[in-house]
């Protein structure tokens, strides 16, 4: 904010060593784990401050926030398998595992047309 005019080589704050650069060129580092902006004071090294935040104050805990991959449970009575993707029966709209995905394999009760078991 020195409000002086400079040539194309010296118009940036760093190029002309502007004493007012800290007022204009403020960057706030963001934690790569929790995506929270980390405030830094003048003279502090951003990498060190973010590292301290990650060690002490960061709210991101990958062990505690373990996301389940196999979330779609089979609707076949007695089956406890879970799949990563939904496999919905077009006739009864139940969700089934790979083994029970075909209407004949899960004893589908809502058949709109007769199905013949292959082989």
UniProtKB/TrEMBL annotation:
<feature type="domain" description="AN1-type">
    <location>
        <begin position="68"/>
        <end position="116"/>
    </location>
</feature>
<dbReference type="GO" id="GO:0005783">
    <property type="term" value="C:endoplasmic reticulum"/>
</dbReference>
<dbReference type="Pfam" id="PF25403">
    <property type="entry name" value="zf-C2H2_ZFAND2"/>
</dbReference>
<keyword id="KW-0862">Zinc</keyword>
<protein>
    <recommendedName>
        <fullName>AN1-type domain-containing protein</fullName>
    </recommendedName>
</protein>
<keyword id="KW-0479">Metal-binding</keyword>
<dbReference type="InterPro" id="IPR057357">
    <property type="entry name" value="Znf-C2H2_ZFAND2A/B"/>
</dbReference>
<dbReference type="GO" id="GO:0043161">
    <property type="term" value="P:proteasome-mediated ubiquitin-dependent protein catabolic process"/>
</dbReference>
<dbReference type="InterPro" id="IPR000058">
    <property type="entry name" value="Znf_AN1"/>
</dbReference>
<keyword id="KW-0677">Repeat</keyword>
<dbReference type="InterPro" id="IPR035896">
    <property type="entry name" value="AN1-like_Znf"/>
</dbReference>
<dbReference type="GO" id="GO:0045047">
    <property type="term" value="P:protein targeting to ER"/>
</dbReference>
<dbReference type="GO" id="GO:0008270">
    <property type="term" value="F:zinc ion binding"/>
</dbReference>
<dbReference type="Pfam" id="PF01428">
    <property type="entry name" value="zf-AN1"/>
</dbReference>
<keyword id="KW-0863">Zinc-finger</keyword>
């Amino acid at each position: 904010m020195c409000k002086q005019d400079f040539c194309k080589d010296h118009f940036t704050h760093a190029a002309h060593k502007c004493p007012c650069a800290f007022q204009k060129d403020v960057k706030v580092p963001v934690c790569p784990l929790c995506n929270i902006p980390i405030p830094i004071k003048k003279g502090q090294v951003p990498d060190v401050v973010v590292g301290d935040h990650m060690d002490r104050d960061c709210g991101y805990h990958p062990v505690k926030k373990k996301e389940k991959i196999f979330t779609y449970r089979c609707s076949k009575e007695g089956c406890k398998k879970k799949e990563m993707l939904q496999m919905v029966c077009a006739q009864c709209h139940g969700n089934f595992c790979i083994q029970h995905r075909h209407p004949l394999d899960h004893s589908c009760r809502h058949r709109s047309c007769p199905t013949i078991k292959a082989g």
